[in-house]
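Deliverable D2.4 — example input (structure tokens):
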């Protein structure tokens, strides 16, 4: 039914597919580990506010320097919010970097991860 060359060619293709699947799985696991450990810390321009956000953008830490007491509550609140947004932008950059270095930003997996983080696709 099969000639020897056709059968050998089919076996090689199956082996290539399997290797491709295993490589994609390895890269996906690497990305998962990198994202799970991701934490970004950013200081405000004034240096009075420092925030850390975790891998999902959640606030993990907030540090206020003593000099913040000389500012109004409204100014302090705005500086905290700006710093959190800055940290989330830095997080986005780190997520996109990790995706690019592992599964590829152009891959279906990469696009799905970026979309899952609520970020636009990288340009």
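Example output (designed residues):
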């Amino acid at each position: 039914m099969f000639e020897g060359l056709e059968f050998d060619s089919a076996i090689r293709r199956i082996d290539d597919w399997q290797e491709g699947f295993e490589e994609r799985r390895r890269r996906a696991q690497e990305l998962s580990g990198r994202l799970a450990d991701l934490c970004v810390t950013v200081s405000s321009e004034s240096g009075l506010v420092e925030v850390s956000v975790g891998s999902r953008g959640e606030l993990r830490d907030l540090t206020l320097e003593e000099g913040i007491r000389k500012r109004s509550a409204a100014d302090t609140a705005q500086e905290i919010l700006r710093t959190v947004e800055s940290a989330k932008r830095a997080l986005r950059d780190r997520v996109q970097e990790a995706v690019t270095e592992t599964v590829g930003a152009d891959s279906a997996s990469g696009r799905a991860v970026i979309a899952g983080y609520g970020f636009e696709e990288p340009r």
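The beta strands are 39-43, 49-54, 59-64.
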